[in-house]
Automatic annotation (TrEMBL):
Residues 336-377 form a coiled coil. Gene3D superfamilies: Spore Coat Polysaccharide Biosynthesis Protein SpsA, Chain A. This is Glycosyltransferase. SUPFAM superfamilies: Nucleotide-diphospho-sugar transferases. The keyword Transferase applies. PANTHER family: GLYCOSYLTRANSFERASE (PTHR22916), UDP-GLCNAC:BETAGAL BETA-1,3-N-ACETYLGLUCOSAMINYLTRANSFERASE-LIKE PROTEIN 1 (PTHR22916:SF3). Signal peptide: none annotated. It comes from Dorea longicatena. Residues 7-158 form the Glycosyltransferase 2-like domain. Keywords: Coiled coil, Transferase. It holds the Pfam family Glycos_transf_2. One of its GO terms (molecular function) is hexosyltransferase activity.
């Protein structure tokens, strides 16, 4: 039986410590009909020497003299693809030996799917599997298109680049990665695919993704990367409904519509604005993206009338929304949340102390009552002379 060629793209920047291991994990796949495209993004370490030391006719090496960043070199590598299938791996991640074989087999058996992913394990710098919330995030297995789009819109990315295998036809149709995005370039790509095609997941851990504590890796958790991720997420959400058909929009988000009977183009535009106002990720504040969408709608007299008549949203009520804090930076929000948590603890401490004071006051009242009762007793009064004599004797 004829085997299709799988083109694997690996981009690299200064991963001399891991790249050989990553290359070996591709070359040692049980599915051996491969084209391994390696694009070096102007590395300043000895990555290229290590790559060139590995002799295998399936390897094609392309060197960039200057560092162009991950999206640009990925797009360069995609132009070199010759196979019927396309896969992507980073130069510090690893594949299990049967990853490609299982994925090619799956896509052949399920022609309705043109792209599939797998579950993954998270490893550290020492190749040790670590317990990570990221692994749980990636452990998804949705079947329906609307489930993917709903998750992408309300929660964010849940698919790792290293686990993907897709037909080259889809890759060509969807086009290049958006070089405006560094942290979420893959997330943007999955959304563009999900608007048109169903996606599948093989629920087996067939890839190992490396995560670092230091700032040498694009996926590390640093304030700058987290800020960039937030900013890119906001922009991706701004364009979420671009090129989405009305049918897919209603099928995916109809249950969230303000007007469950919305059908016309104008009504659906209103529904998009309300959806875009929903909080970003796990936040609670109104999204500024939705407010901006409403601002554009209010420029149109027909849209203004529909918003007022069908949704009860006039200019006065809209001003209430724009009175909210819409443009807070995530870091500022985080600090505010920390202060709120500290205030809660402080208030709880005060409350506990006030309760303790009340208990002590009640205890004091009872003791004073006992003393008062005792002093007013007959025995206390009869022994008063004896107590005086005792005081004199003591002196």
């Amino acid at each position: 039986m004829k085997k299709d060629l799988v083109s694997v793209l690996m981009v690299n920047y200064n991963h001399a410590d891991t790249i050989e291991q990553s290359i070996r994990s591709v070359l040692e796949q049980t599915y051996s009909k491969l084209q391994l495209i390696i694009v070096d993004d102007g590395s300043t370490d000895n990555s290229v020497e290590i790559i060139n030391s590995i002799e295998d006719p399936r390897i094609e090496v392309y060197e960039e003299k200057e560092n162009k960043q991950i999206c640009a070199v990925t797009n360069i590598g995609m132009k070199k693809v010759r196979g019927e299938y396309f896969a992507r791996i980073d130069s510090d991640d690893l594949w299990e030996k049967n990853k490609l074989e299982l994925q090619v087999e799956y896509l052949n058996e399920h022609p309705e799917h043109k792209i599939c992913f797998t579950h993954v394990s998270i490893i550290d710098e020492n190749d040790q599997v670590v317990d990570s919330e990221l692994e749980k995030l990636y452990a998804v297995d949705y079947e329906r298109q609307e489930e993917w789009l709903e998750t992408f819109f309300f929660l964010g990315n849940c698919l790792p680049m290293t686990s993907v295998l897709m037909t080259t036809k889809i890759m060509v149709e969807i086009g290049d990665f958006n070089i405006a995005y560094r942290q979420l370039h893959d997330f943007d790509y999955w959304i563009r695919i999900a608007k048109k095609y169903p996606m599948a997941v093989i629920p087996k851990k067939l890839a190992r993704i490396r995560r670092y504590e230091s700032e040498t890796n694009n996926s590390n958790i640093s304030e700058k990367n987290t800020t960039r991720t937030y900013n890119e997420y906001v922009d991706i959400r701004r364009h979420f409904f671009d090129e989405m058909s009305d049918e897919v929009l209603k099928k995916t988000f109809g249950k969230y519509f303000k007007n469950g009977n919305a059908e016309s183009r104008e009504e659906l535009e209103c529904e998009k604005a309300f959806l875009l106002c929903s909080p970003l990720g796990q936040g609670k504040a109104i999204s500024n993206v939705g407010i901006e969408y409403f601002v554009n709608l209010f420029q149109n007299k027909m849209m203004t009338d529909i918003l007022d008549k069908n949704y009860g949203l006039n200019a006065k009520k809209f001003y209430e929304l724009t009175g909210e804090h819409l443009y807070n930076d995530w870091k500022l929000q985080e600090k505010i949340q920390i202060i709120k948590e500290k205030n809660k603890k402080f208030e709880k401490t005060i409350e506990d102390k006030e309760s303790r004071i009340k208990v002590l006051e009640e205890e004091l009242r009872l003791r004073n009552k006992i003393i008062e009762d005792y002093e007013n007793s007959t025995s206390w009064k009869l022994t008063k002379p004896l107590r005086k004599i005792g005081t004199i004797v003591k002196k």
